[in-house]
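Fill in residues.
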């Protein structure tokens, strides 16, 4: 029996946390069957090992987000935490390893530094990256040192010539008017008695750089980049030396002539300043910085991990295009940038251009719109030189390399993959190679679009935190990765933006750079993120506090929705809704032209969100609100049935999404309507030849709706369809991420003519949640996986499927194999949890405890494939 080191809140790295009473999570690893924690003990010590708190033996099975048992932590507090547990026996486990955690600066008064800017006069954009520098002397040894740092823009810090940390594009993108994230680094080993220097490279990033489509805008948050840094050095006698940003710092420019998120970077190595962050560097020609007022935004510690370099990929092929260009294929659509090793004469410039696809053999750059996605490197002429851009990223599989000096050796170029450094927690595999590739595409799509915020696409002039996309994808995301900290922080930005508006409507994108660009009107699915995303995080991670924190935001949106339904006579009526966005029937130039009525989609979501908020209110003890939102859900559901459903269960929009919403959101009050809707959905799926006919609103639900209709084999048949539109059509076309459109690339190899055509856009990958929950049969029955539900539904031509998930209690697994006329189900239940198991052919579920279990049941292979319904005059395929 081994107890793991405790985790504080959702922090992978508990240095610089922002919580004064962080909750604790630990897990017990044991092979003892049906093991349950009976008691625990937590010990908290200070930096010197003195015990601050010892709970003694606490009789409880709780081990996830357990309330902090020690004293309230102040700024800069460093503590050690360890745990031991008891099972059924009288003896406790050994102590867990100690987790050492340290708080950041928790109060505004802790900051003595002030922002400083190198931008003394307005310059024509784009701006070169700035170098900032300060020398200082330490007259005694160093015991410890911490650097607290952030920027208006993006930064990299150095001390005495050594890079600080490994974060990329720090401090990331928050709603700068409301919240500014800072980082803390342990820099003890970088300092020494005597002369020292600290420097920072400062780029535009999201602060002053160009953002948005149709050319975008600059300086959305201000027209001056700035650095805010506070270095605190502790000496053996306890004295502290503080080096803070002020007017004593100096600034200049260097080799980075521009570095923009959309357009890329221009680097001239001839302008490098060797030793610029070391003591003794000559700054006589540098300019003084200008001090700025203290930030008006709240300075906040990170809740999730930073963006990092997480992987490198080598080219798999060197392509000569029909026009004679040299293009490297990395075999995978990814997000990041290139790292090159190159030799050549001084002044020689290499150009690197990026794109996701080839079109007719050439780099397909039209989907980038006005994003240049191009990096240039001008050589210094000093032997082999290594270059990787600093403050940009690209979405690409292919890179065109122009003007390489001499013959290009492909081993001299590698792709560096970037994303928020979340822990992987979910896996899926099956006997169907194309389905497995689809799932892998979903994973890569998430990786590329979880770059500090959950973005809609990583390549064109957009890359925004669209709320509808993450709302539909969150169940999949929270299975695949531990995104609790990242999305929890993003939700706080959403609430800040939303509650600053008089109408209480969540923005379409967070951080909000669009304002009223879409008329300021609310849109269902997108606005419902305020309610449904916190609920998803609560269900997946068991964190009631996320509901408590977001409750004002959740309530504000539902009050607005209630007002809209009242104004519409019981239903929300609006001229235009984004609705079932990117229905495959929508023409390329009108992605909102869906087969399902927008008001139908909107009111289905009002009922669903009201139900969720009523349950949230009950959990939080808000009894009056629970009654109010239950009534709102009931009244909208009744009005919905009157307006959009016939007594026989036919929907006003005879479309897959309409029936999926009605079946999955419990919008059909009578058994006749439910049966009629189920039969009609099955029929229209058959009539469509199992082609998908849903957009953003319907895609996450269609397979569940078919299962609810008693037609799981139709869901399987739709899953494995290869014709366009379908999930597997892109796979057959060589896709390695999920596309924005079902037909982002047409069968003839040309790119969809629509202006919005991304090849890395995770929304339609929401089907992976169904693969995990239904195909493999693994899901949480209670919040945070305290209880599992294992209910596989075999089908299709699959002979094997399996899912695994790292729960807060340990690894859970569920899988099945068909062996002749026998179904073999193998599961693993983590210690300190239990599972409800529902196997095919069993009338009732049964309960099992933790451990490894194998079950066998007689199995009859269903008729496969199901028959389609064809028009009598249709031509055979």
């Amino acid at each position: 029996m081994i107890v793991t080191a405790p985790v504080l809140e959702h922090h992978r790295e508990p240095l610089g946390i922002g919580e004064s009473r962080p909750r604790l999570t630990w897990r017990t690893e044991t092979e003892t069957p049906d093991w349950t924690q009976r008691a625990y003990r937590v010990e908290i010590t200070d930096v010197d090992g003195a015990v601050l708190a010892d709970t003694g033996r606490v009789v409880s099975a709780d081990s996830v987000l357990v309330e902090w048992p020690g004293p309230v932590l102040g700024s800069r507090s460093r503590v050690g935490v360890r745990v031991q547990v008891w099972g059924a026996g009288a003896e406790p486990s050994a102590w867990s390893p100690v987790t050492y955690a340290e708080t950041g600066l928790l109060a505004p008064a802790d900051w003595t530094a002030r922002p400083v800017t190198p931008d003394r006069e307005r310059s024509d954009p784009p701006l070169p990256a700035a170098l900032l520098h300060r020398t200082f002397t330490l007259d005694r040894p160093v015991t410890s040192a911490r650097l607290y740092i952030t920027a208006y823009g993006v930064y990299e810090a150095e001390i005495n010539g050594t890079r600080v940390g490994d974060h990329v594009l720090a401090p990331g993108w928050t709603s700068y008017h409301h919240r500014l994230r800072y980082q803390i680094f342990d820099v003890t080993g970088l300092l020494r008695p005597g002369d020292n220097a600290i420097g920072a490279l400062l780029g535009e990033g999201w602060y002053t750089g160009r953002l948005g489509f149709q050319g975008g805008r600059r300086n959305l948050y201000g027209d001056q980049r700035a650095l805010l840094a506070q270095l605190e050095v502790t000496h053996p006698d306890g004295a502290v030396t503080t080096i803070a940003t002020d007017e004593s710092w100096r600034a200049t420019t260097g080799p980075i002539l521009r570095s923009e998120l959309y357009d890329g970077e221009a680097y001239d190595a001839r302008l490098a300043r060797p030793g610029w962050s070391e003591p003794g560097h000559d700054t006589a020609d540098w300019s003084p910085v200008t001090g700025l007022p203290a930030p008006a935004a709240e300075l906040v510690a990170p809740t999730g991990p930073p963006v990092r370099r997480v992987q490198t990929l080598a080219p798999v092929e060197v392509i000569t295009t029909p026009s004679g260009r040299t293009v490297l294929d990395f075999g995978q659509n990814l997000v990041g940038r290139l790292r090159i090793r190159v030799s050549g004469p001084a002044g020689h410039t290499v150009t690197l251009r990026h794109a996701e696809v080839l079109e007719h053999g050439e780099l397909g750059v039209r989907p980038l719109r006005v994003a240049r996605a191009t990096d240039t490197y001008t050589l210094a002429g000093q032997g082999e030189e290594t270059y990787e851009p600093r403050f940009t990223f690209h979405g690409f599989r292919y890179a065109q390399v122009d003007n390489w000096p001499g013959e290009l050796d492909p081993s001299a170029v590698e792709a560096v993959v970037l994303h928020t450094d979340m822990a992987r927690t979910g896996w899926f595999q099956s006997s169907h190679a194309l389905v497995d590739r689809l799932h892998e595409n979903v994973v890569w799509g998430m990786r590329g679009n979880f770059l500090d915020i959950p973005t809609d696409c990583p390549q064109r002039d957009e890359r925004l935190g669209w709320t509808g996309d993450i709302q539909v994808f969150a169940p999949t995301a929270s299975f695949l990765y531990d995104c609790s900290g990242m999305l929890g922080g993003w939700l706080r930005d959403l609430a800040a933006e939303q509650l600053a508006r008089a109408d209480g409507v969540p923005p379409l994108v967070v951080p909000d750079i669009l304002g009223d660009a879409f008329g300021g009107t609310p849109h269902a699915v997108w606005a419902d993120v305020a309610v449904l995303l916190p609920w998803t995080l609560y269900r997946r991670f068991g964190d009631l506090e996320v509901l408590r924190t977001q409750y004002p935001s959740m309530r504000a949106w539902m009050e607005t929705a209630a007002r809209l339904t009242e104004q519409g006579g019981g239903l929300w009526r609006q001229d235009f809704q984004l609705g079932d966005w990117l229905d495959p029937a929508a023409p390329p130039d009108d992605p909102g032209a869906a087969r399902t009525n927008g008001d139908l989609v909107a009111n289905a979501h009002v009922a669903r969100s009201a139900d969720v908020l009523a349950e949230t209110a009950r959990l939080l003890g808000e009894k009056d609100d629970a009654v109010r939102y239950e009534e709102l859900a009931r009244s909208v559901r009744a009005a919905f049935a009157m307006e959009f459903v016939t007594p026989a269960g036919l929907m006003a929009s005879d479309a897959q999404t309409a029936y999926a919403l009605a079946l999955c959101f419990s919008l059909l009050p009578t058994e006749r309507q439910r049966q009629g809707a189920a039969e009609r959905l099955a029929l229209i799926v058959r009539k469509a030849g199992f082609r998908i006919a849903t957009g953003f609103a319907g895609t996450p639900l269609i397979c569940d709706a078919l299962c609810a209709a008693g037609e799981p084999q139709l869901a399987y048949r739709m899953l494995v369809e290869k014709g366009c539109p379908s999930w597997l059509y892109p796979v057959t076309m060589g896709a390695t991420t999920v596309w924005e459109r079902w037909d982002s690339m047409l069968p003839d190899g040309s790119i969809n003519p629509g202006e919005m055509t991304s090849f890395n856009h995770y929304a339609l990958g929401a089907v992976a949640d169904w693969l995990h929950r239904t195909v493999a049969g693994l899901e949480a029955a209670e919040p945070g996986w305290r209880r599992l539900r294992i209910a596989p539904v075999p089908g299709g031509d699959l002979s094997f499927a399996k899912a695994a998930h790292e729960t807060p209690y340990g690894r859970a697994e569920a899988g099945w194999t068909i062996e002749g006329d026998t179904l073999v189900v193998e599961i693993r239940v983590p210690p300190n949890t239990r599972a409800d198991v529902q196997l095919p052919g069993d009338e009732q579920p049964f309960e099992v405890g933790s451990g490894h279990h194998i079950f066998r049941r007689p199995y009859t292979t269903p008729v496969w494939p199901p028959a389609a319904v064809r028009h009598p005059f249709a031509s055979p395929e």
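The mean pLDDT is 96.
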